[in-house]
Design a protein that fits this description.
The complex is a heterodimer of chains A (324) and B (259).
Chain A (H helix, E strand, L loop, with lengths): L1 E6 L1 E2 L2 E2 L1 H17 L2 E8 L3 H7 L6 E6 L8 H15 L3 E5 L2 H14 L2 E12 L2 E8 L4 E7 L4 E5 L15 E4 L10 E7 L12 E5 L7 H15 L2 E4 L1 H5 L20 E5 L5 H7 L4 E6 L6 H4 L2 E4 L2 H16 L1
Parallel strand pairs in A: 1-4, 1-6, 4-5, 5-11, 6-10, 7-10, 13-14, 13-15, 15-16, 16-17
Antiparallel strand pairs in A: 2-3, 7-8, 8-9
Chain B lengths: L1 E6 L1 E3 L9 H6 L6 E3 L1 H17 L2 E8 L4 H10 L3 E6 L8 H13 L6 E4 L11 H9 L3 E12 L2 E8 L2 E8 L2 E5 L11 H9 L4 E3 L12 E7 L9 E2 L5 H14 L4
Parallel strand pairs in B: 1-4, 1-6, 4-5, 5-11, 6-10, 7-10
Antiparallel strand pairs in B: 2-3, 7-8, 8-9
Helix pairs in contact in B: 3-6, 4-5
Classes of the chains: A alpha/beta (324), B alpha/beta (259).
Bound molecules: flavin-adenine dinucleotide.
């Protein structure tokens, strides 16, 4: 028996939300009285594995292979399934990133295990895992209980605090990957990575909506500038995306990303149900809207009635004064 | 060649906040039911594959007999045929039970080259049924596809968004592909399409006759509840000028320690 956490890494290193899950995994392993094992998969794994030993893992399994240098679902699912066997894991967890969600789904399907996708909380009850899911687009909560021996969950980023790094303790053990034939052939990769903060990992987000319609380029430039001062990610409503003001990957909501920052600033966003579905879990919500009746004010912690073209740059100036 | 598009009937997204925990528990949600918005993209792509590569298309849904309405929407858009897996008598299932039933229904279609599906459903929000289908059928899975580049020589080549960029990927057919909303603009059903769909004969098969038994779920939902309402009442920041309001807000946010 053990709790296994897949520590996901991309070309730029380990994914931050993996550490959140590893931190929670420590608590679960203690509650279950079992070992916490981390799995690191990739073309190179040494650096991430070493880091994983500082976040409470009793053991770190590395699955290293040239065929794992680029992410391919079938290869990563095969590797993680192998790690589950090597660790004798009964609980298998990963951050609910795009990759984490599909890899855990494949692993659960392959192992005949139960799956809780995108869980927002995890606990132990009677020696079994219980995963809390937010369903109906964040309008219903349910506890997921497992009847299978192996229990798999992906975990929504920012559901758990980032653990403190401690002294390295777990041993690193290499497991030779047995991948078989990999179906996917990567024909071409076009990187558009600009090093910006990812929306789902962001602790602060500044979003713009159709309210920028008058001059969308200027509107999003002002929003981006405020985000820059705050170290925040930029987001958008669907109306702004559909109008072509900003690409889809910035969309927050029902058919965009679900986010959970400490601070969410909505500028020129009315607060439609489908937008709220994606950001209603934010700790502090600030609404800037020129219409005092906009529904976003009902969900907001702070509201400013005003023109975003004036309020957003004013905020940038005021924050610059206070936090440099 | 043949493409199966997987369709789910889900509540209208505008009515999701009204859905009660009791109704979810009972499995009978009172809401206007529509085709899952994400699945419209899959249906549209199936139709376009018909034009581009001469695919025949079939929409398959698992659900109650009322779910034929979602299938009719797909037919009205232009999907060629439809079939329902009736789950009325099925209890104690989970997402993998659904996947097993859908995989059996796909296999019953004869030679299928491609399965298309949406990103996730707006009620279960799982985005995992297609993984179960792919594993059950033993076919490769590609998710988040934003463009089908080509279907040739027994392979499908697609573009997809990946963290940090875009990639072009090729997998052998048959395969399971989930699509993202960048892939197309789903058409509205035409009047002619709606008339044709209303007369369509949609065969229904009980889940049990596809070899899927009740009580086979590996997970179940308990303690279904509404999330706590946000209790915070909004604090409106007043001031004579935008600058004054901004200054007050900046102070408040710093005091809240979110900056
Ligand atoms: C199936 C489905 C899925 C959907 N998914 C999503 C989703 O994922 N995300 C999403 O966001 N929406 C989604 N929507 C759309 C949603 O219903 C709304 O249409 C959308 O959120 C509205 O965006 P908005 O608030 O930017 O625009 P609007 O509703 O038009 O609001 C614009 C706001 O800006 C204010 N404003 C205008 N000018 C200014 C100014 N100069 N300064 C300050 N304020 C100003 C206005 O008062 C207004 O409140 C979905 C809808 C459907 C049917």
């Amino acid at each position: 028996m053990s709790v296994l956490v897949w520590v996901e890494q991309t070309k730029s290193g380990p994914v931050a939300s993996s550490w959140e899950v590893l931190g929670k995994g420590r608590q679960l392993a203690d509650a279950l009285g079992t070992q916490l094992v981390a799995a690191v998969i990739g073309g190179e794994t040494a650096k991430t594995a070493e880091e994983a030993t500082k976040y409470g893992a009793d053991e770190v399994l590395t699955l290293t292979d040239g065929a794992l240098a680029d992410y391919r679902l079938s290869a990563y699912a095969a590797a993680l399934t192998q790690a589950v066997g090597a660790a004798g894991a009964t609980v298998v967890l990963a951050a609910g990133t795009t990759r984490g969600r599909e890899v855990t789904a494949m692993v659960a399907a392959q192992l005949g295990a139960g799956l809780a996708p995108d869980a927002i909380d995890l606990k132990v009850d009677g020696g079994k895992l219980v995963a809390v899911r937010s369903v109906y687009s964040n309008n219903i909560l349910a506890d997921i209980v497992y009847s299978s021996a192996v229990q798999v969950a992906s975990v929504r980023p920012r559901s758990f605090p980032m653990p403190e790094a401690g002294a390295a303790k777990g041993a690193v053990k290499a497991v030779a990957p047995n991948l078989g034939a990999v179906a996917e052939q990567i024909v071409e990769v076009r990187s558009t990575d600009t090093g910006e903060v990812s929306l789902t990992d962001a602790s602060k987000i500044v979003s713009g909506g159709r309210g920028v319609a008058q001059d969308p380029a200027k509107g999003f430039a002002l929003i981006t500038e405020l985000a820059g001062v705050l170290g925040a990610a930029v987001g958008a409503s669907r109306a702004a995306v559909d109008a072509g003001y900003i690409p889809y990957k910035y969309q927050v909501g029902q058919t965009g990303k679900t986010v959970k920052p400490d601070l969410y600033i909505a500028a020129g966003i009315s607060g439609a149900i489908q937008h709220l579905a994606g950001m209603g879990g934010s700790k502090v919500i600030v609404a800037i809207n020129k219409d005092a009746e906009a529904p976003i004010f009902e969900k907001a912690s702070y509201g400013i009635v005003g023109d975003l073209y004036e309020v957003v740059p004013a905020l940038t100036t005021e924050f610059k004064k206070r936090i440099g | 060649m043949k493409v199966v598009v997987l369709i789910k009937q889900t509540p209208d997204t505008a009515e999701l906040p009204k859905v009660s925990a009791d109704d979810v528990r009972a499995g009978k949600v009172k809401a206007t039911m529509v085709i899952n918005p994400w699945d419209e993209y899959a249906a549209e792509e199936a139709i376009q594959l018909g034009d581009r590569f001469d695919f025949d298309s079939v929409a398959i849904s698992m659900g109650s007999p009322e779910a034929v309405e979602a299938l009719k929407h797909a037919l009205a858009m232009g999907v060629g045929a439809a079939a329902l897996v009736d789950n009325t008598a099925l209890t104690g299932g989970d997402l993998f039970t659904t996947a097993d039933a859908l995989a059996a229904a796909i296999a019953a279609q004869g030679a299928v080259d491609l399965v298309l599906c949406g990103k996730q459903s707006v009620d279960d929000n799982g985005g995992a049924v297609y993984a179960g289908v792919a594993v059950k059928l033993g076919w490769p899975l590609v998710t988040g596809v934003t463009k089908i580049v080509d279907v040739a020589n027994g392979r499908i080549t697609v573009e997809r968004l990946v963290e940090g960029g875009q990639e072009v990927l090729s997998v052998p057919l048959p395969a399971v592909v989930s699509v993202g909303k960048e892939i197309n603009d789903p058409r509205y059903p035409s009047f002619m399409g709606i008339r044709k769909a209303s007369k369509a004969n949609i065969p229904a098969t009980a889940a049990a006759s596809l070899g899927v038994a009740s009580g086979a779920g590996r997970t179940s939902w308990t303690n279904v509840r509404k999330p706590e309402e946000r209790k915070s009442k909004v604090v409106m920041i007043d001031g004579a000028s935008a600058q004054e309001k901004a200054a007050k807000l900046a102070d408040a946010l710093i005091a809240e320690k979110v900056i």
